[in-house]
């Protein structure tokens, strides 16, 4: 049989192929020749054939038939054969194939070989594809080589030990004695791999981390890092004028792990971190990499305040770099630190705002998120001006997040109500179609509460929608305001700016144009029709025209619009004496941020969610349960808060006949307090609290569940049954946070179907600590008299990394023991 062609000739031949089919034909022909050679047990050219097979494997062609040939080469005594055999094993074999177990004995023999290069091949192969079984069998040999004086073998053994620890963590202690002298080695290769090994051990075992802190590992690392910084030019390790930046980065990462949550270790490394931060050259990317790792280390350990300011200033310099990747990294890092070092980050506000004009969308998004995190009461006017300018010019994918952020910032830091209203209107004018669903009711509530601004607001909104109905949320708010305050618009009572002269007919013309516009959505038409109806009590000269418009829409093909028109027609004809009372101006709606109670408020035909102020009940009445204000999370008709409350007095009004229907509706939430003995409480969750224990001592047979697990937030439910009432299930929620930053302002809300009653007690805290270092607990009591399967919808809101987060979820996997 003629000698097969060499690898070099095969590569040259394949590269001459003009088409994919031609290349495939060449490969198939050569594979057939290689198979024939393997069948004939041709030992002479086996090494050459396997090398060619590996090249074909790199091109993406199947080469699995060469696996056993690799084992034969490994068993050979020739170094050239072993080299190709081990390379083939690393490329063609993995732990999913049983063939790799046949290598174990060969690797063991080669680990004890007299030639260091053969030992190195075996270490590389074991560290690359060794399975857990192989690692258990060969860990002892690796540990011996880790103690040898040969630097070439020690660096390879250290990396192999890292693989062994990842596969079999319980073998970690075997390598502990060998790590004592690793950092005393002068060879940079051994130092580098030793630091990698120590990092792996510290990350995987808290016990190892505590041990290395005790044995003063930090001073050793500080000494090595200081020598690297202070050493002169070394051609062997120099990269762009910096001595061994790879080793420096690895040491900084290990220092970060050792200093995290440890005062003594952090104190020991403060000085060297300051030296690295001030002495590292920033003109080359290599220096920037070291500085970035230094910043991460400073921010993660318990460092001094001056050192943290230095780190943030380094990130500020990164923002001025021409490299987009460096700017992006700086923005991301500043976003993580803005909560803990707000004032230091504020110094770079102008640079961050300039990044909003960057052409790169990733940088633009990070700059937008960081800009919102920097907004406070002192800079809100300037920051909002920049962000509104950004909203005008940014791409459509940014508008929704930007508008949402402006709404939240304006609500939190608004210097005046007029500024707040102007800002929200500017957003609606610019990006109305991108705003959240709650933007309209929130703005309406803001306007309602700003009594002195009614005339100014309705005039501004009237001018904003003249001839332009493209921004539907703006048109909806304008329609509502014109309906409420149309009399102020016509009378020209605006004092904040020059009043405009508008007649009643001109106002109705605008609303009728909204009704017939092709751009108007069904909801917008509903707002406009309701506004026209309200104006029948504000205007005096156009009531007949309003009656005509309303009667026309009594036959509309839009069912919602038709129903409104029919009802309004009935008010004109049958209940005209009640119309002024029903359509009177909305009262001021109180709103405060609380830990839960939210309700639905009816505003003359428009349903709007609003958080109600929690007020103490009148004297003599039993405080209502917190669950009375429970939010219907998804608006479903089968989910309501069902805990009974004490009736309130009925309001007296000209429209008393209709308002009597609402007499027993309690629209103000009340916090849970001690039971008042003078008023009888309906039998519910707290019955018999003082007479016997509320919960079973043993919650046997009721397993816990994970109700929610997303974005680092985990919610677990545990269950107990009440001794006083078998129909009551007591659920304890535990919220934990696995991310690197705390979650603040955490609010948990829940809703259940009508057949259940639910009581939500106060949480233990509103902050969930990072790294699972603590939990929030909260108790839910559910009364299930019909023993039906329990279902629950939950709503989670919290602040994380400078952003307001909100999510909804449905829990349907309650264990049967919790409700049967």
TrEMBL record:
Lineage, opening ranks: Eukaryota, Metazoa, Chordata, Craniata, Vertebrata
Membrane topology summary: Peripheral membrane protein
Domain GAE: 700-815
InterPro entries in alphabetical order: Adaptor_Complx_Large_Subunit, AP1_complex_gsu, ARM-like, ARM-type_fold, Clathrin/coatomer_adapt-like_N, Clathrin_a/b/g-adaptin_app_Ig, Clathrin_app_Ig-like_sf, GAE_dom
GO biological process, one term: vesicle-mediated transport
Protein name, per record: AP-1 complex subunit gamma
Subcellular location(s) per record: Cytoplasm, Perinuclear region; Cytoplasmic vesicle, Clathrin-coated vesicle membrane; Golgi apparatus; Membrane, Coated pit
Family named by the database record: Belongs to the adaptor complexes large subunit family.
């Amino acid at each position: 049989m003629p000698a097969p062609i060499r690898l070099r000739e095969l590569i040259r031949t394949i590269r001459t192929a003009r088409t994919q089919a031609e290349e495939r034909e060449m490969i198939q022909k050569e594979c057939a020749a290689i198979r024939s050679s393997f069948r004939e047990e041709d030992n002479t050219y086996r090494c050459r054939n396997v090398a060619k097979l590996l090249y074909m494997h790199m091109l993406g062609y199947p080469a699995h038939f060469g696996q056993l040939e690799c084992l034969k080469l490994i068993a050979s005594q020739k170094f050239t054969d072993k080299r190709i055999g081990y390379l083939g094993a690393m490329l063609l074999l993995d732990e999913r194939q049983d063939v790799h177990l046949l290598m174990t004995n060969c690797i063991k023999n080669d680990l004890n070989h007299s030639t260091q290069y053969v030992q190195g091949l075996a270490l590389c192969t074991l560290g690359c594809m060794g399975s857990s079984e192989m690692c258990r069998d060969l860990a002892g040999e690796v540990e011996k080589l880790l103690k040898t004086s040969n630097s070439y073998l020690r660096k390879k053994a250290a990396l192999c030990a890292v693989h062994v620890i990842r596969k079999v963590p319980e073998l970690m202690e075997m390598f502990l004695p060998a790590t004592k002298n690793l950092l005393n080695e002068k060879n940079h290769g051994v130092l580098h791999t030793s630091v990698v090994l120590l990092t792996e051990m510290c990350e995987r075992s808290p016990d190892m981390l505590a041990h290395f802190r005790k044995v003063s590992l930090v001073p050793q690392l500080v000494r090595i890092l200081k020598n690297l910084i202070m050493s002169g030019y070394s051609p062997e390790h120099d990269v762009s004028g910096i001595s061994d930046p790879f080793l420096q980065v690895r040491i900084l990462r290990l220092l970060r792990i050792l200093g995290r949550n440890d005062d003594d270790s952090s104190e020991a490394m403060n000085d060297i971190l300051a030296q690295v931060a001030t002495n590292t050259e920033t003109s080359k990317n290599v220096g920037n990499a070291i500085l970035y790792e230094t910043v991460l280390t400073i921010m993660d350990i318990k460092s001094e305040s001056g050192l943290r300011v230095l780190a943030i200033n380094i990130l500020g310099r990164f923002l001025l770099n021409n490299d987009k990747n460096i700017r992006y990294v700086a923005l991301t890092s500043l976003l993580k630190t803005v909560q803990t070092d707000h004032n230091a980050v504020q110094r770079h506000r102008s640079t961050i705002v300039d990044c909003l004009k960057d052409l790169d969308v990733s940088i633009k998004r990070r700059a937008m998120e960081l800009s919102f995190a920097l907004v406070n009461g002192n800079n809100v006017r300037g920051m909002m001006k920049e962000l509104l300018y950004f909203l005008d010019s940014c791409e459509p994918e940014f508008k929704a997040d930007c508008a949402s952020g402006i709404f939240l910032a304006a609500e939190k830091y608004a210097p005046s109500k007029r500024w707040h209203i102007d800002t929200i209107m500017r957003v609606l004018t610019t990006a109305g179609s991108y705003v959240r669903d709650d933007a309209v009711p929130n703005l309406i509530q803001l306007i309602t509460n700003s009594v002195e601004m009614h005339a100014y607001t309705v005039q501004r909104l009237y001018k904003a929608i003249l001839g332009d109905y493209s921004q539907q949320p703006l048109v909806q708010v304008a329609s509502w305001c014109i309906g409420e305050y149309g009399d102020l618009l016509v009378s020209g009572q605006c004092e904040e700016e020059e009043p405009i002269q508008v007649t009643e007919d001109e106002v109705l013309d605008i609303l009728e144009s909204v009704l017939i516009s092709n751009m108007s959505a069904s909801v917008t038409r509903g707002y406009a029709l309701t506004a026209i109806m309200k104006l029948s009590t504000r205007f005096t000269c156009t009531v007949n025209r309003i009656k005509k418009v309303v009667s026309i829409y009594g036959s509309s093909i839009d069912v919602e619009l038709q129903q409104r028109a029919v009802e309004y027609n009935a008010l004109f004809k049958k209940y005209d004496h009640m119309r002024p009372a029903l359509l009177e101006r909305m009262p001021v709606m109180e709103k405060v941020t609380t830990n839960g109670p939210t309700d639905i408020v009816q505003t003359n035909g428009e349903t709007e969610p609003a958080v109600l102020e929690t007020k103490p009940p009148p004297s003599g009445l039993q405080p209502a349960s917190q669950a009375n204000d429970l939010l219907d999370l998804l608006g479903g008709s089968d989910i309501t808060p069902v805990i009974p409350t004490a009736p309130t007095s009925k309001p007296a009004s000209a429209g008393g006949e209709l308002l009597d229907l609402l007499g027993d509706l309690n629209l103000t939430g009340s916090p849970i307090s001690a039971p008042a003995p003078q008023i009888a409480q309906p039998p519910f969750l707290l019955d018999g609290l003082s007479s016997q224990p509320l919960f079973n001592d043993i919650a046997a047979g009721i397993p816990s569940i994970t109700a929610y697990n997303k974005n680092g937030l985990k919610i677990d439910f545990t269950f107990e049954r009440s001794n006083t009432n078998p129909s009551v299930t007591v659920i304890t929620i535990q919220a934990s946070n696995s991310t690197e930053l705390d979650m603040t302002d955490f609010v948990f809300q829940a809703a259940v179907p009508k057949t259940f009653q639910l009581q939500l007690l106060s949480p233990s805290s509103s902050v969930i600590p990072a790294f699972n270092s603590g939990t929030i607990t909260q108790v839910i009591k559910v009364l299930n008299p019909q023993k039906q399967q329990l279902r629950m919808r939950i709503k989670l809101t919290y602040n994380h990394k400078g952003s307001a987060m909100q999510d909804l979820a449905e829990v349907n996997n309650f264990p049967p023991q919790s409700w049967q």
